[in-house]
Amino acid sequence: MNQATNAVRAEILTQAIPYIKEYAGKYVVAKYGGNAMTDPELKKSVMQDILLLRLVGVNVILVHGGGPDINHMLDALHIESHFVNGLRVTNEDTMEVVQMVLAGKINKGLVAELTALGGKAAGLCGIDGNLIHVHTKDPALGLVGEIDAVNKGIIDNLLAGGYIPVISSVGIDDKGQPHNINADTAATEIAAALNAECLVFMSNIDGVLKDKDNPCSLIKSLTVEETEALKKDGTIAGGMIPKVDGCTDAIKGGVKKVFIINGEIPHALLIELLTDEGLGTMFSA
Ligand SMILES: Nc1ncnc2c1ncn2[C@@H]1O[C@H](COP(=O)(O)OP(=O)(O)O)[C@@H](O)[C@H]1O
Ligand SMILES: CC(=O)N[C@@H](CCC(=O)OP(=O)(O)O)C(=O)O
């Protein structure tokens, strides 16, 4: 390794100091889902980022989805999927599969990956410790939960024990009935309940684009007001709507910084949080 390479490496590491000081001891919620979850190498790089953040003292919480995996399992079982406004219509059979996939396969897979990297991680869903309490959002959607409360005690207990909480978006109602929750919404509510310093959505797109078909048209920063205007004029559409709603809700709920970044870029999370390089769209009040 020559001196120039050493200098670049040292520069990158020292550049992280002010960012580590900013986030150490604070809550950072990272939402991981969609396509960025299906590639094993990418998955490993995301878990490395989460672990590194934890090791430098950030109270990092991983909230995950797994829509594509749920679709695969439902297909294999010949159960049809229907979505209304981006939410999966969830009957009892579908709920069983959602719980099996999210709280089982994916949640334990992420915990195993973090453990294999040498981290301490504990997986839970919203049922555990009454973490995410819900009521049925709309009977037409079936067992889809609207969040009433996030009981942050169990998150704090895990963090105090040195664990990275890994949370899947399944909630519980008054009768003990499990409900399906959109993972972006779960991450938003968890971040708001924790008054988090930062919430990061890892998507499969660079952020909010001026023209969704032009990857070079990334909007680097948006206020709540600007975001509403882009929704009204149709610039923000489809699957981006619930995501930006999550961003603006989180800001209104007291989360200080909210980002949408491309989780398909290796180590996007570390680059966004610990370097001068801003990758995605940052939301502010
Ligand atoms: N202005 C916009 N900027 C970026 N993406 C947009 C925009 N308007 C609509 N979209 C669509 O939103 C999609 C992202 O939402 P979604 O697929 O639900 O993400 P995820 O699977 O990561 O939760 C993009 O792939 C894009 O097709
Ligand atoms: C109610 C509802 O739609 N729940 C989602 C939960 C998973 C999710 O949100 O996963 P991604 O983040 O990967 O999209 C679903 O059943 O697909």
TrEMBL record:
Keyword line: Amino-acid biosynthesis, Arginine biosynthesis, ATP-binding, Cytoplasm, Kinase, Nucleotide-binding, Transferase
GO biological process, one term: L-arginine biosynthetic process via ornithine
Catalysis performed (reactions): N-acetyl-L-glutamate + ATP = N-acetyl-L-glutamyl 5-phosphate + ADP
Listed InterPro entries: AceGlu_kinase-like_sf (IPR036393), AcgluKinase_fam (IPR004662), ArgB (IPR037528), Asp/Glu/Uridylate_kinase (IPR001048), NAGK-C (IPR041727)
Location (main, coarse): cytoplasm
Compartments, record wording: Cytoplasm
EC number, as in UniProt: 2.7.2.8
The name this protein goes by in its record: Acetylglutamate kinase
Originating organism: Dialister hominis
